[in-house]
């Protein structure tokens, strides 16, 4: 094992990981503790907790630019632009050590058994190559490693091992929402979050600052730079930041041999490796595979099925915000979810659509956020004396029932390379082509109607409905799907590319269907299952010499 | 760093800010808390990207009466209006006096005891949910 910080430029690694986000960080930790010599490349930098504005007065102002989740708004050098002119939804992500978990809300969800069997149960999409039961031990291990807080016994899921930490407070907003759900006899449960309610493995306990979505200044939330990287660096992983990969290389035998990247001085460098694992997320991964063309792979690497980039799923998000008479301190965190509901999660064909959605209650932030969407309307509506009246009425008195809709995989929804747009290194940027289907539209309408009933039952005096939020592509899935058949999938159930025996993909691109749940718990469990299989089968693994 | 705003710009800004955020409902007007001075500098320090649109807007309406200026920008230059109104409202709500008046302590650190049995468990609210039994579809055989 090499020592931490040694310079392996020119030296070949056992494994090259591209992307230090959720999946890449987890993989680096496990491979390195099993003696693999690992190099990880990420285009972004390290982010220091002190940079987050959460504990400072300018928090909301900074949230609208520097810490915005849409890379096109943030427009930092470590981001790449995304053409969204043909997409109903903007993709959200962060590019740094820790990847999108720097900004994630840390809602920790397992998928349900039915999510892995959509074709069998509903006659649409496809089944996954494994079941909930096969993934369960990996969920448990990931929950332990990452530090998830929550309460056991949720009847929406099969019984299982309790989470390692007690639940976070649900606050007045969670209680209010729960009262409404009880009146209707609908399901609710305190939401599990990858946020420690007590200090955990070097991370501080959450202090409920409620700024999780712009980075946690307390070092509490499970962002993977804090969860996995300290141990990985000790294990000798070489993490190269500011390294933007432009191509995965292959040899004459069709094996991956490493990658070419551009460093922050604009120099092109090559990192060689025996095995390559791509963890660049549901948009970065297909982009990179499509960029990696060669004589042998003229349509992009691992793309003999033609499916790389296709079947993009992004979880359209809708919401109902309710305003209440009584003060609810609704700026308090975590944000993070307080309670969730799976009342309408499973398919009921009498509703006129298949599949469903998860609901969650979230706090509604500070006084400025409320003003964000007012431009262009008559002045007096949002400003003048009305501003003060609205602020007094709504601020601290409102919360949101958010609806995460399951979108089904469709080949027409896809990531392609943009013919003109490039990143700051001149590498072609991705373009999204993504439209909501009829099933999704009906699903959202139904759920919005039910969420209004839930708000009413809780005692809301007024409501605002957001039918589809454009900035809602938090969850990027499906663009390099897994499956048994090389003709209809990109990788097998262990993350191995059908076309390239030493190329692996571990991120959300591998998802067969999207479920209606926040996906990162499943991204982590699947990556863990894949990496443990790779470690166990290392002797049989073909590698580039 | 200088923000490049002259006295006229600040005056125009204060006028528009007061149209957007007047003295009403027990709240002070934006100019009463000095929105056009240090507060504006601070906002532009945090958000230098706003400066160009804000300046363009202010200079386009120089000399117009404040209400007319605000209406004009809202109708004709949404980006400039957005920058001016964001600078005004962000500066306003960052101010400690204003925060006190609306009862906002900021994104505070709020202690809690994670080992305490939550109220919804103590009072049986959650039990009615578990008592209804499982609601998931098991893996088909
Ligand atoms: C605001 C926000 C809120 C979210 N909330 C939740 C939530 O509550 N619950 C949940 O489950 N999920 C949530 N998510 C989603 C979650 O963050 C992602 O699912 C998860 O991080 C994906 O992991 P990943 O490994 O696939 O990719 P990422 O974590 O996105 O990491 C990909 C990494 O690859 C790097 N990379 C990409 N291309 C290249 C290249 N060419 N060269 C070098 N490096 C490259 C990037 O810089 C990045 O660091 C949220 C996301 C956002 C943005
Ligand atoms: S609520 Fe908790 S996790 Fe979220 S930012 Fe605050 S301390 Fe961090």
TrEMBL record, chain A:
Keyword hit for Ribosomal protein: no
SUPFAM superfamilies per UniProt: FAD-linked reductases, C-terminal domain (SSF54373), FAD/NAD(P)-binding domain (SSF51905)
Protein keywords: FAD, Flavoprotein, Oxidoreductase
One protein family per Pfam: GMC_oxred_C
Domain Glucose-methanol-choline oxidoreductase N-terminal: 16-316
Transmembrane portions of the chain: none
Record-level Gene Ontology MF annotations: flavin adenine dinucleotide binding; oxidoreductase activity, acting on CH-OH group of donors
Domain of life of the native organism: Bacteria
InterPro entries cross-referenced by the UniProt entry: FAD/NAD-bd_sf (IPR036188), GMC_OxRdtase_N (IPR000172), GMC_OxRtase_C (IPR007867)
Domain Glucose-methanol-choline oxidoreductase C-terminal: 409-527
Family from the record: Belongs to the GMC oxidoreductase family.
Descriptive protein name: Choline dehydrogenase
Organism, scientific name: Hypericibacter adhaerens
Record lineage: Bacteria, Pseudomonadati, Pseudomonadota, Alphaproteobacteria, Rhodospirillales
TrEMBL record, chain B:
Taxonomy, superkingdom: Bacteria
The protein's name: Uncharacterized protein
Organism, as annotated: Hypericibacter adhaerens
């Amino acid at each position: 094992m090499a020592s931490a910080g040694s310079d392996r430029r020119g030296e070949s690694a056992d494994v090259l990981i591209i992307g230090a986000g959720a999946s890449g960080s987890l993989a680096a930790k496990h491979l390195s503790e099993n003696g693999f010599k690992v190099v990880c490349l990420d285009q972004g930098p390290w982010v220091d907790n002190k940079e987050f504005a959460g504990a400072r007065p300018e928090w909301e102002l900074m949230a609208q630019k520097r810490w915005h989740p849409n890379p096109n708004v943030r427009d930092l050098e470590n981001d790449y632009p995304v053409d969204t002119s043909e997409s109903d939804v903007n993709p959200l992500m962060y590019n740094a050590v820790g990847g999108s978990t720097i900004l994630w809300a840390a809602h920790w969800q397992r998928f349900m058994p039915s999510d892995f069997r959509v074709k069998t149960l509903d006659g649409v999409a496809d089944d996954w190559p494994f079941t909930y039961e096969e993934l369960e031990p990996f969920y448990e291990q990931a929950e332990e490693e990452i530090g998830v807080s929550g309460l056991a016994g949720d009847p929406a899921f099969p019984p299982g091992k309790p989470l390692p930490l007690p639940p976070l407070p649900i606050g007045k907003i969670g209680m209010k929402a729960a009262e409404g759900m009880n009146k209707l006899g609908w399901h609710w449960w305190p939401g599990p979050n990858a946020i420690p309610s007590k200090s955990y493995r070097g991370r501080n306990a959450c202090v409920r600052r409620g700024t999780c979505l712009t980075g946690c200044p307390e070092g509490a939330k499970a962002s993977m730079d804090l969860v996995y990287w300290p141990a990985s660096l000790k294990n000798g992983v070489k993490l190269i930041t500011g390294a933007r990969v432009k191509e995965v290389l292959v040899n004459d035998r069709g094996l991956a041999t490493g990658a070419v990247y551009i460093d922050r001085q604009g120099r092109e460098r090559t990192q060689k490796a025996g095995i390559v694992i791509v963890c660049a997320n549901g948009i970065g991964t297909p982009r990179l595979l499509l960029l990696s063309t060669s004589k042998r792979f003229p349509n992009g690497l691992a793309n003999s099925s033609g499916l790389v980039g296709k079947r993009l799923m992004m979880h359209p998000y809708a919401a109902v915000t309710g305003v209440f008479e009584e003060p609810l301190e609704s700026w308090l965190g975590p944000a993070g979810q307080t309670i969730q509901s799976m009342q309408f999660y499973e398919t009921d064909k009498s509703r006129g659509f298949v599949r469903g959605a998860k609901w969650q209650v979230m706090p509604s932030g500070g006084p400025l956020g409320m003003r964000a969407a007012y431009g262009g309307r008559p002045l007096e509506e949002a400003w003048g004396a009305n501003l003060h009246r609205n602020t007094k009425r709504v601020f601290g008195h409102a919360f949101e029932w958010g609806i995460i809709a399951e979108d089904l995989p469709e080949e027409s929804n896809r990531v392609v390379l943009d013919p003109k747009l490039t990143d700051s290194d001149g590498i072609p940027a991705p373009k999204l082509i993504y439209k909501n289907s009829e099933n999704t539209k009906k699903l959202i309408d139904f759920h919005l109607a039910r969420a209004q009933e839930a708000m009413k039952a809780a005692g809301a005096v007024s409501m605002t409905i957001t039918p589809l939020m454009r900035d809602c592509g938090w969850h990027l899935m499906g663009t390099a799907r897994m499956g048994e058949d090389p003709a209809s999938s990109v990788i097998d159930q262990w993350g191995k590319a059908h076309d390239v025996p030493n190329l692996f993909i571990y991120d959300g691109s591998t998802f067969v269907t999207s479920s209606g749940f926040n996906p990162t718990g499943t991204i982590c469990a699947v990556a863990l299952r894949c990496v443990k299989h790779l470690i166990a089968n290392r002797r049989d693994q073909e590698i580039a010499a | 760093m200088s923000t490049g705003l002259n006295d006229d710009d600040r005056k125009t800004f204060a006028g528009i800010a007061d149209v957007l955020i007047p003295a009403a409902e027990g709240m002070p007007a934006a100019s009463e808390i000095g929105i056009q001075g240090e507060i504006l500098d601070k906002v532009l320090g945090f958000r230098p990207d706003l400066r160009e649109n804000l300046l363009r807007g202010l200079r386009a309406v120089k000399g117009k009466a404040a209400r007319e200026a605000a209406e004009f920008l809202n109708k004709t230059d949404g980006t400039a209006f957005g920058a001016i109104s964001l600078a005004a409202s962000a500066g306003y709500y960052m101010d400690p006096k204003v925060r006190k008046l609306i009862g906002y302590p900021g994104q505070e650190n709020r202690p809690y005891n994670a080992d305490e049995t939550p109220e919804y468990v103590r009072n049986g609210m959650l039990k009615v949910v578990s008592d209804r039994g499982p609601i998931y579809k098991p893996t088909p055989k």
